[in-house]
Write a structure and sequence with these properties.
- This protein has a single domain, classed as 3-Layer(aba) Sandwich (Uracil-DNA Glycosylase, subunit E).
- The chain has 7 helices and 4 strands, in the order αβααβαβαβαα.
- The chain has helices spanning about 5-10, 40-45, 55-60, 75-100, 110-120, 140-150, 160-165, and strands spanning about 20, 60-65, 100-105, 130.
- Strands 2-1-3-4 form a 4-stranded parallel sheet.
- Helix 4 (about 75-100) packs parallel to helix 5 (about 110-120).
């Protein structure tokens, strides 16, 4: 298991209410759970910018996993697509383990693969989907997340909007 995956697991809540799904950790070595990736900074801002963001994220039953468990963002498109496809069954297995009440896909390009994994895992609800905040999508990401956040299932049978009211 990579250091990324060990760190990710240390932030796994006992009960995952909302699962956020990215494509993969970036090739740069930055990582959401290291608090140094563009996704971390964008998510932290979307959720109010608290210094305790990762602890709050976990406490509310939120968790970030990736479709592919190795960096693919610097790969040629053909190899990147191949790895996305072959990761679907393994990701479906993790979905079966997680059983989240809601899923937020954080990259529109991976939606078809996440939908296939959800189908394989027996999920019948529609996930939320937002653009990744990188590559000029910061404002679109935040607009999308501001609409999504109020509906997210959180720990204790509540919704995020109830946790912040």
């Amino acid at each position: 298991m990579s250091n990324f995956e060990e760190l990710r697991k240390s932030f796994r809540p006992d009960r995952i209410t909302t699962l956020f799904v990215g494509e993969s950790a970036p090739d740069s070595g930055r990582f959401f759970y290291n608090s140094d990736s563009s996704l971390f900074h964008a998510m932290k801002k979307a959720f109010g910018g608290q210094a305790t963001f990762l602890e709050d994220f976990k406490r509310n039953g939120f968790y970030l996993d990736d479709l592919v468990l190795m960096p693919v963002n610097k790969m040629a498109n053909k190899e990147r697509s191949r790895l996305r496809q072959i990761s679907i069954p393994e990701f479906a297995g993790r979905l079966n383990d997680y059983r989240p009440k809601a899923i937020v896909i954080v990259m529109r390009a991976i939606k078809p693969m996440v939908l296939e994994a959800m189908r394989m895992a027996g999920f019948s609800y529609e996930p939320y989907c937002t653009p990744h905040p990188a590559f000029g999508n910061w404002n679109r990401f935040h607009a999308s997340m501001s609409e999504i956040i109020v509906s997210l299932a959180a720990a204790g049978g509540k919704h995020w909007k109830d946790m912040t009211a």
